[in-house]
Amino acid sequence: MLYAVWISLCAIAFVALRGAEDPSRRHGRILSNDAAVRAVNVLGKEYEAVHVGYAKKGEAGSEDRWVVLCDRKPHTRLKAAMVVELRASDGAVIAVRRAGD
To answer: What is the pLDDT along the chain (101 residues), one digit of tens a residue?
Structure first.
């Protein structure tokens, strides 16, 4: 009986919380997965995001941003890699450059 009540409680909580904000995500910032998708959309489907990093204001930039490293498909060992910098607050493109530049 206790097991059935516990399953019911979990199911109710799952349905009630499915649209809730993630408490671990900082407010005013897009998710890293969203940044990767936006970077690939900027470069085109022939690229794939291979790494996403977060850089705070002052770390070689004037605002908080996502730095997305993308490589051409099939992978080129980063010989044709591109870097897309996106504003962390709304995902707007700040810069697109070749990796290493």
So the answer is: 999 999 999 999 999 998 887 777 777 788 899 999 999 999 999 999 999 999 999 888 889 999 999 999 999 999 999 999 999 999 999 999 999 87
Task: Output DSSP code: residue 22.
Answer: P
Residue type, 93: V
How many CB atoms lie under 10 A from the CB of residue 93?
13
The structural domains of the chain, with segments of one domain joined by +, span 27-98
Residue 67 CB coordination number (10 Å): 20
Secondary structure E strands in the chain? 47-55, 65-72, 82-87, 93-98
Class of domain 27-98: alpha beta
